[in-house]
Design goal:
about 190 residues; Rossmann fold; four-stranded parallel beta sheet; about 30% helix; malate dehydrogenase (decarboxylating) (NADP+) activity; NAD(P)-bd_dom_sf; Malic enzyme NAD-binding domain-containing protein; NAD binding; Malic_NAD-bd
């Protein structure tokens, strides 16, 4: 990808587990072209519950965006993300990132409070809807709002202003980088 993350390191799941395909693409669990394009090559040999997927894939980031699986990022999932980081060599550990993007709040994959509590304040949390700050271990944690409304108004205005027929994907990368550059270390802490 343009962001430098190889497709092989992006694991997309559905209700049945990791989306996969055979080498020739004849078999697999992808239901549409987008899922098939991101499918892992080869059927996973490990159990397909989310805790087992985290244990085997060892992600630094989990993103929920389906709107039909509220609270699927359970305490066990978050604790497994911490174990994954704790097992890494000292210089390779990062704070786990948990994005619960489903709207409305009742459909979120995890609440800010649960994410911070289950991770003992170690996780970086972002959501598609507003959550209040939470005090964990005496420290206020302010959840980030990770929502497309930061990009789409300007992107739409620009497209209309120049009467664009299409918007290249790289424009969204540039916009995302511009939003990310608005953050400083204090915002992430």
């Amino acid at each position: 990808s343009e962001a430098g993350i190889p497709k092989e390191q992006v694991f997309v799941t559905n209700s049945k587990g990791v989306i996969w395909r055979s080498e020739d693409g004849a078999e697999g669990t992808g239901k549409n072209d987008e899922q098939k394009a991101l499918a892992q090559v080869g059927q996973p040999s490990y159990p397909q519950d989310l805790v087992s997927i985290v244990r085997n894939v060892k992600p630094d980031v989990i993103i929920g965006a389906v709107g039909v699986a509220p609270n699927c990022f359970t305490k066990e999932v978050i604790e497994e993300m911490l174990r994954v980081q704790d097992a890494k060599p000292e210089g390779e550990r990062v704070r786990p990132v948990c994005f619960a993007l489903s709207n409305p709040k009742t459909q979120a994959e995890i609440t800010a409070k649960d994410c911070y509590t289950f991770s003992k304040g170690r996780a970086i949390f972002g959501s598609g809807t507003r959550f209040d700050g939470e005090v964990v271990d005496g420290r206020l944690r302010e959840p980030g709002q990770v929502n497309n409304f930061f990009i789409f108004p300007g992107m739409s205005f620009g497209a209309m202003a120049c009467e664009a027929r299409t918007i290249p994907e790289r424009f969204f990368m540039v916009a995302a980088e511009a939003v990310a550059n608005c953050l400083d270390a204090h915002d992430i802490e």
